[in-house]
Amino acid sequence: MRRDFDCGVPEISDYLRDRGNNAAWRNAAKPWVAVDADVGVIGYYVLVASRIERKKAPADLAAIEPLHAIPSTYLAAFAIDRRFQGRGYGSDLLLHAFITAANAARYVNSYAMDLHAFDDRARAFHVRHGFRPLGDPRRPNDLYILLQDIRRTLEGYGDLV
Ligand SMILES: CC(C)(COP(=O)(O)OP(=O)(O)OC[C@H]1O[C@@H](n2cnc3c(N)ncnc32)[C@H](O)[C@@H]1OP(=O)(O)O)[C@@H](O)C(=O)NCCC(=O)NCCS
The pTM is what? Predict the structure, then answer.
């Protein structure tokens, strides 16, 4: 099932297809995979504990942590199989990633979710869901959203966290 996954971006498809064979991936990484028993993998994502350098952080993040790098949750991979794109699965899966990040932040400190958008389309998708540029003009696809904004989004869906 995993081997057929194709989101249209080889690097991101391979991440799910090939790393599944790697012991380090099996033991360390935690992919969240949306599967339909009949059609296979619909999409997946990976979250990683990370931190954003204070000097690279926009004012709202820098204000949270005046001395050190800002603990964050990095969306290391995020993709929907081509057969299912444009039907709302990406938005649903991102909501799931928000829930996972908000739950993890109850135990491991995190103030934001950050990511590197693969291209303009992915960037537009994430901006529509509340992400903003981290602010480095040379890296316009580096985006973040505050955990407090994620929690506010989740409030609209009831008791999810
Ligand atoms: C970016 C990505 C994850 C979005 O997933 P998706 O399932 O297509 O996302 P959604 O369907 O929720 O939203 C995408 C579009 O479909 C539209 N849409 C949402 N639900 C819809 C529905 N029921 N019917 C028709 N259109 C719908 C949205 O308005 C949105 O509009 P757009 O065409 O202007 O982008 C997906 O395109 C992908 O995997 N791309 C390749 C890998 C990649 O770039 N990953 C991100 C790395 S940062």
Answer: 0.91
- Assign domain 2-155 one CATH number from 3.30.300.30, 3.40.630.30, 1.20.1250.20, 3.80.10.10: 3.40.630.30
pLDDT digits (tens, 9 = 90+) for 22-76: 665 677 778 899 999 998 999 999 999 999 998 889 999 999 888 889 999 999 9
Ligand 1 mean position, distance from CA 52 (Å): 27
H helices of the chain, in order, are: 10-19, 23-28, 59-64, 89-104, 120-128, 147-155
Residue 63 Cα to ligand 1 middle (Å): 33
